Amino acid sequence: MDMPRAVKAQSPWRPCLVGLLLQLLFALGFFSYTRVSYDRPGPPAPGRSPGPASTPTPPAPRPLLILLWTWPFHTPVALSPCSKILPGTFDCQLTANRSLYPQADAVIVHHREVSANPGSQLPPQPRPPGQRWVWFSLESPSHCSHLSALDGYFNLTMSYHSDSDIFTPYGWLEPWPEPPGQIQVNLSAKTDLVAWAVSNWNSKSARVQYYENLKSHLRVDVYGRGHKPLPQGNMTETLARYKFYLAFKNSLHPDYITEKLWRNALEAWAVPVVLAFFKAYRQLQWDQSHHWPIQMKRNGKSISSLLVSPEAPALDRAQGQVSESNLGSGVFI
């Protein structure tokens, strides 16, 4: 198997909470239009002389203040100045201090922490003039309860969905600025074939049923609750022993790409195997010569044949094509 194309796999927000800061910065472009310079001189009043020409230096505008109302999943992180997170950004301040709510230009509310009782968990009303509220979630619709209870509160949406006002995926691909000649994948150290880490085990879910069929054709080592232990400290080292990783999501929705694709698979240089809508993964601009979509079959035989076959790169891709609206398995190499 050829070495995977060298790309930067950005760490997902949920397993690496510092990434939240970068996601919040996507909001800058949407909040910047709220800035108004009240010191800008206007036209002279009727009957009054404009006076001598002058160009007073206006005071520097205060930084945009973005308030994180709820810590996602109740996990605080250190909030650094925007200029330290994204060089060249000087007009943004991130805070979780609720006492600054009256001065905040925007308030970001994570859905999970307020959906059960929005009347008491949302910021107080009436909101300050010009303040924007942003609904934030990285969960799929299957795990976003009480959505209707939040109707009418928010000005902008912030999620993994490409139609959101502020697009915040778990990760993305960036090409290296120049070929990274020193990066090598030690294939000899990959002594095992397929791994899967799962904590939310539901025997009725599509991913577990697919695994049950797949394991009858090849060995799959399962980690997580009720299976082999996988401590966070050596997770990447453990998964790096495997050639393939099952990056199966807990629910299937358009645009929803599991964080395990980035953290568990790509960071361990394992080939991700996904069970998903193909369109979401095509939007990542994978090298299509290293992408084999396979129509989902309940017996799992087609995908198992690919994973164990040394002729995988020679597969006729046309035989595996399915429409973008269909579900399927995909192997990305």
Describe the protein in words:
By secondary structure, the protein is of the alpha/beta class. Helix content is 17%, strand content 20%. The protein has helices at residues 19-25, 28-31, 82-85, 111-114, 118-121, 206-214, 235-239, 260-265, 278-282, 301-308, and strands spanning 7-9, 64-68, 92-95, 106-110, 132-137, 156-159, 166-167, 173-175, 192-197, 221-223, 242-248, 271-277, 291-295, 327-332. The strands form 3 sheets. The chain has a 6-stranded parallel β-sheet. Strands 10-9-11-12-14-13 form a 6-stranded mixed β-sheet. A two-stranded antiparallel sheet has the order 1-8.
CATH topology type of the largest domain: Rossmann fold
Q: In the CATH hierarchy, what is the architecture of the largest domain at level 2?
A: 3-Layer(aba) Sandwich
Query: How many domains would you count in the coordinates?
Result: 2
Query: How far apart are the first and last residues' alpha carbons, in Å?
Result: 9 Å
Largest sheet composition: 6 strands, parallel
CATH class of the largest domain: Alpha Beta
What is the CATH homologous superfamily assignment of the largest domain? Glycosyl transferase family 10, C-terminal domain
Q: What's the multimeric state?
A: single chain
SSE series:
EHHEHEEHHEEEEEHEHEHEHEHE
Average pLDDT, all residues: 73
Number of strands: 14
Major beta sheet, strand line-up? 3-2-4-5-6-7
Give the helices and strands, then pairings.
Layout: E1 7-9, H1 19-25, H2 28-31, E2 64-68, H3 82-85, E3 92-95, E4 106-110, H4 111-114, H5 118-121, E5 132-137, E6 156-159, E7 166-167, E8 173-175, E9 192-197, H6 206-214, E10 221-223, H7 235-239, E11 242-248, H8 260-265, E12 271-277, H9 278-282, E13 291-295, H10 301-308, E14 327-332
Parallel strand pairs: 2-3, 2-4, 4-5, 5-6, 6-7, 9-10, 9-11, 11-12
Antiparallel strand pairs: 1-8, 12-14, 13-14
InterPro entries: Glyco_tran_10_C (IPR055270), Glyco_tran_10_N (IPR031481), Glyco_trans_10 (IPR001503), GT10-like_C_sf (IPR038577)
Pathway: Protein modification; protein glycosylation
Domain Fucosyltransferase N-terminal: 63-171
